[in-house]
Amino acid sequence: MSVHVVLGARGVIGQETIAALTAGGDDVIAVARGPVVVPEGVRTRQADLLDAAQTRTAVAGADVVHLVAGLRYDHAVWAREWPVIVRNAAVAARDAGARLVALDNVYAYGRVEGPMREDTPLRPISRKGRVRAEAREMLLSFPDVAVGVAADFYGPGARTSVFNRLVIDALRRGRAGRWLFDAGLAHSMTYTPDIGSGLAALGRSTETGVWHLPTSAALRGIDYIDIAAGEPGRARVLTRGQLRLAALVDREARETLEMGYQYEHPYLFDSSAFERRFGIAPTPFAVGVRRAIEAERPRLGA
After folding, report:
1. Could you give the count of Cα atoms lying within 13 Å of 71 in the half-sphere of its Cβ?
2. Fewer beta carbons within 10 Å, N or C terminal of the chain?
3. Are 158 and 169 in contact (CB under 8 A)?
4. CA 160 → CA 13, 71, 95, 152, 230, distances in Å?
5. H or E segment at 235?
């Protein structure tokens, strides 16, 4: 039985990765900066991934290391801390003789005409995209590394998801769901349990390089909201001007503003290579969003 160490176990992707690994009978060690709730049988370790020595200790005995840690959504934090975390994890995994499976997003691609695929060139046009591009190049310079890429994500407990915040939370409170800039454009979204399943599959394989994790066919923003609401007409558009006003007082709005190009052009993500190789189909959006909404009922007192 392989030992899988999950770095960043407190976040939603860490939790979904642990769930997928334990469901498959793998031996899992969950690593977080502080205490973390895990399923029975999962061991835990504490480590600050900004500290190389702590990271090395955290991955001791691993056959596979999963890097799924997240940072506050702030380009300055990303620029300062993400390269350190990536290097510490990659060096620790290499020195332990372990495979490294790292989660990434699409920011490094920049604005893309047509579907994003594994061979799409890295041409970032944002500050956060440049950080991600440099990190991916660093990761792929190490041996035995697989990078699992997800599109915009949504899912149960995904507190940092734009869709969860603007649509699911709003609908649960009886409000209209909001979409950024143009709700008539197609936009891919990845379901968080599918991310966990995909990363687990990569960890159990010998594949290296870049893989796009299972993601269902893109729908229009208005379609996503209508499906989530269970009825048409519940969508509202948040314009770029409105976001600029919000950015005057809200840090997350400021950070979202530079990524606005993703909502001004079709955002298409192709995961067909992964689906063929691993035989894992993405969860249909109608199924995933119902599960995500149900997960919010206790938190929102429904």
Report:
1. 23
2. N
3. no
4. 11, 11, 33, 11, 23
5. strand 235-238
